[in-house]
Every structure is written in structure tokens, then in C-alpha cells.
Write a structure and sequence with these properties.
Layout lengths: L1 E2 L1 E6 L4 H5 L6 E4 L2 E5 L1 H5 L5 E5 L2 E4 L11 H17 L4 E7 L5 H5 L8 H16 L8 E12 L2 E4 L12 E4 L3 E4 L5 E3 L2 H14 L2 E2 L7 E2 L2 E14 L2 E13 L6 H4 L3 H29 L14 H5 L9 E8 L6 H14 L3 E2 L7 H22 L4 H5 L5 H39 L1 H6 L6 E6 L2 E6 L3 E4 L9 E5 L4 E6 L8 E3 L9 E6 L2 E6 L4 E3 L2 E3 L3 E3 L4 E4 L3 E6 L1 H12 L5 H13 L21 E4 L4 E4 L10 E5 L18 H12 L3 H9 L2 H8 L18 H14 L2 H32 L4 H35 L16
Parallel strand pairs: 2-6, 2-17, 7-16, 7-17, 23-24
Antiparallel strand pairs: 1-18, 3-4, 4-5, 8-9, 8-12, 8-15, 10-11, 13-14, 15-16, 19-20, 20-34, 21-22, 21-31, 22-32, 23-25, 25-26, 26-29, 27-28, 27-30, 30-31, 33-34
Helix pairs in contact: 3-5, 11-13, 17-19, 18-20, 21-22
This protein binds adenosine-5'-triphosphate.
The site of adenosine-5'-triphosphate has 18 residues, from helix 4 and strand 14.
Pfam families: FHA, Kinesin
InterPro entries: FHA_dom, Kinesin_motor_CS, Kinesin_motor_dom, Kinesin_motor_dom_sf, P-loop_NTPase, SMAD_FHA_dom_sf
Organism: Geodia barretti
Length: about 800
């Protein structure tokens, strides 16, 4: 438990305040801030409001001996934040106050007087550099940053590359809390990288001149630095991840004071609205704390984007510092009083920060302490482990020892898995951070890794190639950057070595050149054969997102252009990129399967140690470089864990790609009647990989391509069509009304018989039965047609959930 620390900072008089000869209404004594209502003082009644804070900074008048400068603010507030980050805690520092009161000055500062953000980052990296001095037990670090703004209640990425990107959505993770979907994460390894990104982000932030401030922030800005630190000391792993939110809020403002109109007025009202929500959240949390958390008060985090994103920092898992910035002038008395009131309420908020330990490391630690506990039980029974292992071993001690051994084995296994995962990440980072990248292009910083259980996702905003290695013995993952404007690809033995050295007997010394021209990547073939999507290219040709690039007969790469993919995704989501076009795009590349299984085995691929190559080795890796989805640019690979059989129910074979599965299964559908039946009862998306694992053994060489014969293709098409769920709907639309009509006819005959039994004449009974049927049948028919049609359209939209898979298969 820790309460929110609050500091108040008074800035010097602004030019406007000096010009209006406004006088002081504020005084600071130690940690005390006193606000005078000068009007009442002058009338002799005198009224002063006293507030107590953790720090009260009087930054008025530089010549004043008591004036507190940027350095002092940093050492009081920044120091503990850095300490908390290294200890594995989340922290948040946010500046709150009226417009023009000095929030941006305190958080960002200027070139000559840097504020908290640059100072904290600088010190953080200097401490990282200081601690990372070799040795196996040295702590290794990974740092990523993101920068966003909330403008008119919309989240925008300030580091999306070039211009502020489109509005992003907020989602909530059950464990990690709210996060922004699609926000770019940038790997940084030194302060220079941070400074670059900070400047780039600040230049995009919405600012405008108002009557109160020449450079007024029109948005709330959240700068987040995530630091992961890991160490394996004496075989014991430790991994923590701390998040540092540094927030510069937009200031509250009165339209009359700022002279806001039109767009500025809209911005101002949106700023005020979110600040009112922040105030409400602070008040609710303070009330909650006053009742020692017993009273279940509703905290309206979701009422504004700002409070939702700061949910963890306000009453959650973070150590939080609030800096309330105020003007000392009497003309701002009302705003200053309101700021001080909120600040003093915020002091009552209780947060619950915890060390953010990696879940697998936590399990290892818990298992280890359990082992220690069991060992202690044995020792207290005055039995050493040697005696226990002897003949006199009692039954209870024996089971304890077995339990200890089992747990120790589990600890060893988990530690090995963890170490391998961390080593992989470090290997990538080493290459990303290597000197040439940083020198030639700051964009190399745009690489981020995300670990999610056994899954590691590599994101890059820079055009790159991913090795699609046909060698079944290859287990590495090759990630190749395009170097600056021109990247030469050539043979491994070429002298001087090319930028990207490609193995293979038919790779020329200067095989080809990839040139980046105005954001487009163009392939220039030089002395070797180059294919784009299996088409031989002899003149310069453009590479597009998702294209397959083949050099010689064996080296194949998938080309990713993240910016182009982003555009495609956007157009697709807006419905501008029709499903047909996307399907055509996919088909074009599915046709261009780079290798058939019958092709001769290429030379073993070991990526060259060229600086632009990241090669990843792990014990068991499932690569997902899906060539059938053009907009996907991130690279995912998962470690195959023996315990996760159900997740990996696909028939995996070393080096076999998803495309090969597709072609294998397509050929098989056309051959086996049993498969036809299965196809009809299995959702089509699940069908393809499954059939490969059926009872019949398929010779890889025989079925390496899709069926060539026209009737087989036709049969395949019909089968896939039959398997489409919308057919169910059509069937329902036609049959349900027919069956219900029939049922009504039968029931009308029965009704007639019943009426006759009630002594009605035969004719009267028949007329009555027919009338009832005539009235009821259309209603029932209409209802069933509606249900059938609804079902049909839902199925057509693929909203019917797929039939769950019946069988799980063991991974090979
Ligand atoms: N402690 C300080 N010492 C010297 N100058 C300051 C101080 N605080 C603020 N200023 C000056 O006051 C002006 C307004 O500050 P700033 O832009 O930081 O305000 P703000 O609260 O961020 O305003 P807004 O909410 O409109 O963005 C700037 O010119 C800044 O240099």
C-alpha cells in the first residue's frame, strides 16, 4: 500500500499577469502552501487557506535564493521513480493544473532546462549502462517506449512515423489492465534514442496559441517507458517488468480567459470534460480510502479516455506522484484554489503497487521455496537426505523426498525454458542495438518484441525480409533489415561481403540490390536470377507487402512493408479493399508456393553474420510467417511446449510450411471418399491441415502440388462449397416452411376429427378446421421463413461459430 505523493509548484508571473499588475496570493513555507484571498485580507478580515503536501516548490523569481529549479524537482521526485522502476514497480508522474501554469515546463522543460521526462530517462539509461558490465550473472535489460496523446477524447500515436496516426482503440487486459491497441512500441537502448523519439513525438503533439499560453497543449500526452530486467544468478532466474508513465495533461481553462472560439473552444471543452472526470475519480478514490476501502464506491474510470488509461496509476498497481502546478497571481485565485483542493484530495488515494514479476519466474520461485520448506521438514525430523535414501527410509519421508525430486526437476525444466527464451530475445536485441543500425538510421529503433507466454512477437515498422527457409533441418528464424536506401544481397563468399549474405551455390556475388525510393522498395536484379512471386524478374520491379522474393533456386524470403500493410489494413477495415481483391491477392501468393517438397534439398542455411540479419535459434520453434495474409507484418513464433499439446493440435513436421499443408490436403480431398464425408461435417477452415493427419500415409513427393486435373478441381470446389456454412441456412429457408405447412395440414385434419367428436356437423367441423388452418398457417410459415432467412444471412456472414474440433492430435 502506498498513498499518492503530491507536490505543488508555483511558476513565475507570466507577462500577461505582470502587465495587469496582478499581485501575489500564494505563499509557501516548508511543505505548506498558503493561499490568500487578498480581497478579504484587504478588508481586514483576512482569510488564508492552508494545504499540506509532500513538497511545495516556490519556483518564482530565479534570483530568489529559495527558488526551486528543475534539478531540485528531479532529485526529489525523479530519483524515487527510477528506484521503483529498478525494483520492478510501475510508476506514474502526472502534472495537473490550469492552462499556462507550467505542466509542460515541469515534465518536458526546454533544451537548456530539461524537465522530468528527459532527466529520468537519462539517469535510467546511465544506471543501466553502469550495471551491465559483462559476466554471466550480469542483469540484462530491455527497454521500449511509446508516446500517445488524447486529443478530443481520441487516442493518437505520436510515434506512428511521420504524422499522428488514426484514432486507436482502448482494450482491457484481464491482468495488465487497459492498453491501447496498435500503439507502436519502440525499442530503445540509450538516451539518444529516447531523445530522438521524444522530439519527434512532441513535434506532432497538438499545440496552439491562446490568450493564456503562447504554446498551449491541446491534448493530454502519455509517455510510457517499459523496462524489463532479467538475471540468472546461481541458476535462479529473476525477471521483472516495470512501466513508467510520465503524463503531461492539458490544462483546465475558462473560455473567457483563453479567448477560445471554434476549434479551440471544442478542444477546451473536451479537455475540461476529461479533467472533470479525473477530479471525480480522484474524489471517489479519496472517499474510498477514507472508508478504508470498506465502502464499495463506484469509481467512474470509464467516463473518459484519460482516466481509463490511468486506471492503474490511480488506485491501482503503481507508485504515483501528482505535480499540481499553479500560478501565484491573484487573477488565477479560483483556478489555484480548485487545483490545490484536488491535489490535497489526491493525497488520500491509496495505491497497491506490487513487483511485476514474470509469471514463469514466479512459478519457479514458488516451487523453489516449496522445495526448501519440504527439505526443512526432513531436517527437523533429524534425518539427513543420505539416511533417508538408505534402507531405514520411512514411508512419509520417502514420499517427501520423491516430491522434492519431482519439484526440483520441474524447476530445472522451467529454468531452462526461461533461459532459452530470454537468450533468444537478447540475441535479437544485440543485433538491433549494434552500432551500424543506430548510426545509419534511427528507424532501426522501431523494433519491438512482445512475449506472451510461449509466444514471441517481433514487430518492426521498417521494411524487412523474413527468411522462408526450405531446409527441413533449419530451426532458426531469420529476420533481415533493409539497410538505409540501398541493400546489396549476394553470396556468402563475396568480397567485400554484401549487406545481406545469402547461402546457396547459385547465388551471385552481387545478386541483386534493394532500393528504397520514396517509401517504395524496388528490386534491381544484378548478376543472379531473382523471382517475385515465382515470376522471373530481369528489370527493376517493385516489391509489395507480402511478396515472396526468391534468389536463385533455394533462397526464399517473404517481404514485409509495415507501412503499406497498415494502409491495406485500414482500407480493408473501411471496406475499400474488397474481399475479392484481398482474396485475389492471397490467391496470387498461394499459387506462388516457393518450394515443392520434391525440389532438391538446398544447402544448409546459416544466415550470415551480416549486421542486418537477426537469426534466432530455439529448441523447438513453430514459425508463423503466414503468406496468405498480406496485411500481417509481425512475425510470430512459439516455443513448442510439451505441456501444450492441445494448442498445437496440428500435424507439425520439421520445416513444412502451411502452404504445403494446404496443397497436401487439397489433393487429398479429391482422392479419399472418407475425407469427403469428413469435409462435410468439419468447418472448412479446420479441414485442410487435419486431413494430412488421416490414416492414409501420403508420400510427400507425390502430392506436392494442388490437383491439376479439371474434374478434381471441380470436385474440390463443390466439396468446399458444400462445406460452406451458408448452405445450411439456404437449406433451412426452404425446408423449415415446407415442413411447418405440412405439420399444419396434418393438424387441421386432426382438428376436424376432434370437432366432429364434439357433435358438430361434418361440414361445419371441416369449415372451422380449414378456417383455423388458413389463419394460422401463414403466420407460422412467415415466422419460419424469417428464421430461415435470418439463419441463412448469419451463416453467409460467417457468424455461425465453427463446429468444435472433435479430436486433438499430438504434435509430432
Ligand atoms: N517553473 C517555471 N519557471 C520558469 N518558467 C516557467 C515555469 N513554469 C512555467 N513557465 C513558463 O510558463 C509558460 C507556460 O508554461 P507551460 O507551457 O509549461 O504551461 P502548461 O501548464 O503546460 O500550459 P498548457 O496547459 O496550456 O499547455 C512557459 O513559457 C514556461 O516557460
Amino acid at each position: 500500500m502506498s498513498s499518492v505523493r503530491v507536490a505543488v509548484r508555483a511558476r513565475p508571473f507570466s507577462e500577461r499577469e505582470l502587465a495587469s499588475s496582478s499581485h501575489f496570493c500564494l505563499e509557501m513555507k516548508g511543505k505548506k502552501t498558503i493561499l490568500y484571498n487578498c480581497g478579504e485580507v484587504h478588508t481586514g478580515r483576512g482569510s488564508a487557506k492552508e494545504f499540506h503536501f509532500d513538497h511545495s516548490y516556490w519556483s518564482v523569481g530565479k534570483d530568489n535564493a529559495h527558488c526551486v529549479g528543475q534539478e531540485q524537482v528531479y532529485s526529489d521526485l525523479g530519483g524515487p521513480v527510477i528506484k521503483a522502476a529498478f525494483a520492478g514497480y510501475n510508476s506514474c508522474v502526472f502534472a495537473y493544473g490550469q492552462t499556462g501554469s507550467g505542466k509542460t515546463y515541469t515534465m518536458t522543460g526546454s533544451a537548456t532546462e530539461p524537465g522530468l521526462i528527459p532527466r529520468i530517462c537519462k539517469e535510467l539509461f546511465s544506471q543501466i549502462e553502469g550495471s551491465g558490465s559483462g559476466g554471466d550473472s550480469a542483469v540484462s535489460y530491455r527497454t521500449e517506449l511509446s508516446y500517445l496523446e488524447i486529443y478530443n477524447e481520441k487516442v493518437r500515436d505520436l510515434l506512428a512515423g511521420g504524422k499522428a496516426g488514426p484514432a486507436l482503440r482502448i482494450r482491457e487486459h484481464p491482468r495488465e489492465g487497459p492498453y491501447v491497441e496498435g500503439l507502436s512500441q519502440h525499442a530503445v537502448h540509450d538516451y539518444t534514442g529516447v531523445a530522438c523519439l521524444l522530439t519527434a513525438g512532441n513535434s506532432l503533439r497538438a499545440t496552439a496559441s491562446t490568450k493564456m499560453n503562447d504554446s498551449s497543449s491541446r491534448s493530454h500526452a502519455i509517455f510510457t517507458l517499459t523496462m524489463t530486467q532479467a538475471v540468472l544468478e546461481c541458476g535462479v532466474p529473476s525477471e521483472t517488468r516495470s512501466k513508467l508513465h510520465l503524463v503531461d495533461l492539458a490544462g483546465s481553462e475558462r473560455a473567457s480567459a483563453t479567448g477560445a472560439e471554434g476549434v479551440r473552444l471544442k478542444e477546451g471543452s473536451s479537455i475540461n470534460k476529461s479533467l472533470v472526470c479525473l477530479g471525480t475519480v480522484i474524489s471517489a478514490l479519496a472517499d474510498k480510502a477514507a472508508h478504508h476501502g470498506k465502502k464499495t464506491l463506484y469509481v467512474p474510470y470509464r467516463d473518459s479516455v484519460l482516466t481509463y488509461l490511468l486506471k492503474d496509476s490511480l488506485g491501482g498497481n503503481a507508485k504515483t506522484i501528482m505535480i499540481a502546478t499553479v500560478s501565484p497571481a491573484y487573477s488565477s485565485y479560483g483556478e489555484t484554489l480548485s487545483t490545490l483542493r484536488y491535489a490535497s484530495r489526491a493525497r488520500a488515494i491509496i495505491n497497491k503497487p506490487v513487483v511485476n514479476e514474470d509469471s514463469s519466474v514466479k512459478v519457479i520461485r514458488e516451487l523453489k521455496s516449496e522445495v526448501e520448506r519440504l527439505k526443512a521438514i526432513i531436517t527437523t525430523q533429524h534425518l539427513s537426505m543420505e539416511v533417508v535414501a538408505g534402507e531405514n527410509m520411512s514411508k512419509t519421508t520417502g514420499s517427501l523426498v520423491a516430491d522434492i525430486h519431482k519439484k526440483e526437476e520441474k524447476v530445472a525444466e522451467l529454468t531452462k525454458e526461461w533461459a532459452s527464451k530470454w537468450k533468444d530475445i537478447q540475441q535479437i536485441m544485440k543485433v538491433v542495438y549494434s552500432e551500424p543500425f543506430c548510426v545509419y538510421d534511427q528507424k532501426a529503433h522501431d523494433l519491438a518484441l512482445h512475449c506472451n507466454g510461449a509466444k514471441l512477437v517481433v514487430h518492426s515498422d521498417h521494411p524487412h525480409l523474413v527468411g522462408v527457409d526450405p531446409d527441413i533441418l533449419s530451426t532458426g528464424l531469420v529476420f533481415l533489415y533493409l539497410k538505409g536506401e540501398c541493400t546489396i544481397m549476394g553470396s556468402q563468399s563475396a568480397k567485400p561481403p554484401p549487406d545481406i549474405a545469402v547461402p546457396g551455390a547459385d547465388i551471385a556475388d552481387l545478386h541483386c540490390r534493394l532500393v528504397v525510393q520514396r517509401g517504395k522498395v524496388v528490386l534491381h536484379p544484378l548478376n543472379g536470377e531473382c523471382f517475385i512471386n515465382r515470376v522471373l524478374v530481369t528489370t527493376p520491379g517493385r516489391l509489395r507487402q507480402g511478396d515472396l522474393l526468391q534468389l536463385g533456386s533455394s533462397a526464399v524470403f517473404r517481404f514485409n512493408h509495415p507501412q503499406e500493410a497498415k494502409r491495406l489494413r485500414k482500407r480493408h477495415s473501411e471496406g475499400l479493399l474488397g474481399a475479392n481483391r484481398l482474396a485475389r491477392h492471397r490467391r496470387a501468393r498461394t499459387r506462388s508456393t516457393p518450394h515443392t517438397l520434391s525440389s532438391p534439398p538446398p544447402s544448409p542455411t546459416t544466415a550470415s553474420p551480416a549486421t542486418s540479419v537477426v537469426e534466432l535459434h530455439s529448441e523447438a520453434v513453430l514459425r508463423a510467417c503466414d503468406p496468405t495474409s498480406p496485411p500481417a507484418t509481425s512475425l510470430t513464433f512459439s516455443q513448442v511446449q510439451r505441456s501444450q499439446k492441445s494448442h498445437l493440435a496440428l500435424p507439425l513436421e520439421l520445416g513444412r510450411s502451411f502452404e504445403e499443408w494446404n496443397s497436401l490436403s487439397l489433393a487429398k480431398i479429391a482422392m479419399s471418399p472418407l475425407t469427403i464425408l469428413r469435409t462435410l461435417v468439419t468447418p472448412y477452415s479446420d479441414t485442410l491441415p487435419q486431413h494430412h493427419h488421416s490414416d492414409e500415409n501420403i508420400e510427400p513427393g507425390r502430392v506436392s502440388s494442388p490437383p491439376s486435373c479439371w474434374w478434381r478441381r471441380l470436385l474440390c470446389a463443390v466439396l468446399l462449397l458444400c462445406n460452406a456454412p451458408w448452405l445450411l441456412g439456404v437449406f433451412g429457408t426452404l425446408t423449415v416452411p415446407a415442413v411447418s405447412m405440412l405439420a399444419m395440414l396434418v393438424s387441421s385434419i386432426k382438428l376436424c376429427a376432434v370437432l366432429q367428436k364434439c357433435w358438430l356437423s361434418r361440414w361445419l367441423a371441416t369449415v372451422l378446421a380449414l378456417l383455423t388452418t388458413a389463419l394460422v398457417t401463414p403466420v407460422v410459415g412467415l415466422c419460419s421463413i424469417t428464421v430461415g432467412a435470418g439463419l441463412s444471412s448469419l451463416s453467409a456472414l460467417h457468424l455461425i461459430p465453427p463446429i468444435p474440433q472433435q479430436r486433438t492430435r499430438k504434435p509430432v
